[in-house]
Amino acid sequence: MSAKSIMVAGTASHAGKSWFATAICRYLRRRGVRVAPFKAQNMSNNSYPCKEGGEIGRAQVAQAEACGLEPSASMNPILLKPNSATGSQVIVDGKVWRTLSGREYYEHFEYLNGRVMAAYERLAAEYEYIVMEGAGSVTEMNLKRTDLVNLGLARRVGAPALLVADIDRGGVFASLVGTFALLEPAESNLVRSFAINRFRGDASLFEDGVEFIEDKIGRKCLGVFPHAPDIHLDAEDSVSLDAATRGNGQVAILRFPRVSNITDFSAVRGAVWIDRPAGRQFETVILPGSKNVIGDLEWMRSRGLDRWLLAQHAAGARLIGVCGGYQMLGERIDDPYQVESAAGSAAGLGLLPVTTTLETEKTTRVTEAETPGGRRFTAYEIHVGRTVTPNGAEPFAFAGREPEGIRHGRVMGTYLHGAFEDPAVRQELLGEGCVDRESKDAMYDRLADWFERNGDMRRFEELYL
Predict the structure, then answer these.
(1) Which member of 97, 98, 163, 432 has the greatest number of CB atoms within 10 A?
(2) The pTM is what?
(3) Out of 50, 323, 383, 408, which one is annotated catalytic?
(4) 160-174, 175-189, 339-353 — which is least confidently predicted?
């Protein structure tokens, strides 16, 4: 293992670890460093298929893009995709391994740690620097013995750590001082500095706060970094929806309990994410992906959202299902191998003349597609369903030369994730103006600028390079 590395750790979940890791990736790349991202274990239903094969979390895809790299399964060797309140599908080295409960998962620590170390060593042999991202809090005391992703990993590879705390959620003094109070000496020695994230207002007003924390924990602050609402990165998981559920546009998106691949709709202007019937009419209602299609279909019915969808459609709304949502719009879903549910089968909403069978083999691929209107776009598929459409049905699009999905009046279904990220496709399907968002590459540069402008770069280089 020849590469240098840094562990970007957090005092809590959603503190900004992915944000800082992506910023550091771009900062180092602009300095000419051959850098790669790494997250040993990710829990997210937002994933992406690598061209080399296998799927990884979207946060590591963004970090790979910031590094100017093609995403690789080595960058996220373990991906947990929750499909129930207590269990997850476990993806190892990009491929489905098993479905396990939390307790069962940690019984396989030695094997999983071996896969993590092998993936890290592959990257370390190829790149000069590895930016590692932790998960949750570094002081999850009940999980220390089986720590695959935080300071336990940092100790195994000899990586110094940067600790990120979110001041916007409150309690930043207690979170930082309390974290250091719980660290063992060997862990504490790894954490060389800390960063305050999402500060609003005049940062000079927090200078006394920084001095207090530095005095208590014996570490210097890398910087007080301001809230940056104009910088947008792909969401790692559905937690990010908590801050973006109240749009005012004409598109509603159902927020399933096990929703997946929410990045499909990050560019849809003013979309309203709903989890119960809304008291107004929409032009379009979207059913997104789901990690447990039959379970989320039952949830929809328990809340009366099935009747609400039918009423929306009857009043003129366009309905669009993507992946799991596509399956729900059909006549029936069968799960003979209990891939996602013990229910076995369920009646769909009956709005598309299709039937779906969930199979044990997962389809993961990136493809070039084209709508019937001639809009070309890059898409990807991640699903275990095989959906049968009637002969002569109008396809949603053509993937390669093959028809894909279905258009049936004002109801459409597709397995093609990423369609709504393309401005021309949004214009065709939703009537949005064909104005794209700022390019991802420009966004990564602005993120690196934010990191350099607000951080002590001399201190960063002394401590971590």
Answers:
(1) 163
(2) 0.87
(3) 323
(4) 339-353
